[in-house]
Amino acid sequence: MADRGFDLEGRLDALEEHDLKRALSPVDRVAERGYFAEPSGGDLPVLDSAEALVFASNNYLGLTDDQRVQDAARQAAATVGTGAGASRLVTGDTLVHRDLERQLAETKGTERALAFSSGYAANVGTIAALEPDVVFSDELNHASIIDGCRLADTETVVYDHCDAADLRARLEERVERAAREGREPADESWLIVTDSVFSMDGTVAPLEAICDAAEEYGAWVMVDEAHATGLYADGGGVVQAEGLEDRVQIQLGTLSKALASQGGYVAGSSDLIECLCNDARSFVFSTGLAPPAAAAASEALHVARHGDARERLWENVAHLRDGLESMGFEVWGDSQILPVVVGDRRDAIALADGVRERDVVAPAIRPPTVPEGTSRIRVVPMATHDRDDIIACLEAFQAAGEEVGLL
Ligand code: PMP
């Protein structure tokens, strides 16, 4: 079987040979900037969110309000500073970053992890740095994956949403095409990229079948766990839930959803992280993640791994899905994102307005964001919703659904 992976060791050796290799400094040098000191105390103003129940946030575990997470951010601001002040490779590296990356690697079951200033920057920087010859991309992948492919100027083959059989057919087609053109596809590097949880459909990618196909054709797999990190097994994503850590070469995501902060990350082998420190321009030429954001994400990850917020979220998801379906609504997906699909865009807007009048916020999603005829309301519970909140949401949907004539 041809090896269509990426020779990261070779790349690193070449950089070293030409004295061009950059690396983060040893962690004891970073420690000089300090980290663990007494928090300064004092409460920051909190926005009043009492007037409506929000069922449309990516703050899935409700941790942006968590005292421990807020304290971690305050403490980092007070001891390390509010900003990194420079890129990580220059003077912007701190123990707060290292602590976050160590914990991400541990959660993701990888050798290392690297924090980026956003999930968008992580996707764009990673794909462009790898310069794959061909990317096989799910048709509903996030915009930052699409932009990464554009920036890498790579050939992108789009496969049907969550369809491993279609992916396999496209891989085979590509082998046959190369043979017809008399090229040796073994010279090429191939990357299969997918979101794990898709934000508009709530679907979950068939990662095991994708890994099977990847291994058969020698390609690498990159999974964007933006909507999954923190929510699945031991605070990981779908890769952890399915035990695929050793078969997915690149795990990536955001710190801005369940991890209640801002920023992104990539987790993988040491070679991968070292290559990104050299070649991911969105890492090299961008200021390090702000220390309070890194510290908040780190604490949120700790809470996600060891607390009961995940359990509460999934209970709320089950309660809400059961309730909506038993009313007669069509609910897509298989994750914490519950798209209530009503079809017509005017009906979707009327339903969203109706639930809003009943103090529940869950906006309508219409074309061009989603295909014509599949307008929907994306209902997303959080771990911090209590039983009464879920019941209030269901009652709002029942009343508004009847008013619009959908039930
Ligand atoms: N990937 C996916 C699947 C996302 O949904 C998002 C955010 N909407 C991103 C990447 C980008 O993450 P960030 O907001 O941290 O830039």
From TrEMBL:
GO terms for biological process: biotin biosynthetic process. Its EC number is 2.3.1.47. Pathway: Cofactor biosynthesis; biotin biosynthesis. One of its GO terms (molecular function) is pyridoxal phosphate binding. It catalyses: 6-carboxyhexanoyl-[ACP] + L-alanine + H(+) = (8S)-8-amino-7-oxononanoate + holo-[ACP] + CO2. It is an enzyme of class 2 (transferase). Belongs to the class-II pyridoxal-phosphate-dependent aminotransferase family. BioF subfamily. This is 8-amino-7-oxononanoate synthase.
